[in-house]
Amino acid sequence: MMKSILLNKINHSIQKTFTIYPKIYPQAYSLWHHHKEYEVLYFVKNSGTAYVGDKIIPYQGGTLILLCANLPHMFVPKLNSEDHPDKVIDAYVLHFSAEIINTMIENIPEFKSINNLFNNWKRGMVFNNIKSNEEVFNLMKAINEGNNYKKVTLFFDLLNLLEIDQGFDFIASSGYVNSISLQKGRLEKVYDYSIENFSDSSICLEKVAESINMNKAAFCRYFRKVTHKTYIEFLNEIRIGNACKILLEDENKSVTDVAFLSGFNNMSNFNRQFKIIMGQSPSTYLKLRKF
Questions:
Q1: pTM confidence score
Q2: H-helix or E-strand containing 237?
Q3: pLDDT higher than threshold 90 for residue 122
Q4: 144 and 268 share one domain
């Protein structure tokens, strides 16, 4: 996993509140990055895997994802060259300045109601109601095609739709989001090390602590302080996220195969951790998602 790269999305010299554009994902797109803007992302077609914070989730055409400022993410499409000709739009992306929106919320009483939406946005949100998502998508297209004044009014219509839609799931864990503004250098190293090594069942606290030049006891105190969870809890979330990805994408893999590929060397521990994190057993998870 690459280090999270800061990308500058908005040209502040021309003081744009937001930018919106259709996006074409190249065949080998893979960039772990973050930026200072909030993001609304609607996938028009194709499917793939989204890496957001400390979670791994699948996406498909009709999926709507919201990402807050500085939340690292990457989207890896599952593409075949024959069904992805050049210049076919995969997604519509909207980026907007958090500073400008916060100023409006602070100074215009009618906008204070969307505070809850922005608080939820911090963890990343995924909406899976295709019909509701299409309404948001139609507004995004209208914003893209409108004049300056119309763009702004439609943008607030879009925020209103997102505010009233409760059919979403959080993506990143609250502990991860609370930690991204604290001592980012160390946390990025821990995250990168974990992503690169989570499938190794022998990974241990000593090795992780050594990767950031700390002893085991100091590392455990540090990690719990900034993430409000133990490192093992964090590692299990990464492993179960990967397990869910394989269960959804590879019908040829058994649950046992998935457990070992995700870094578990004990099936009872895998089943226990899966139920703690996902709220259900691996077999129930599969049944609910086979439609």
A1: 0.65
A2: helix 231-249
A3: no
A4: no
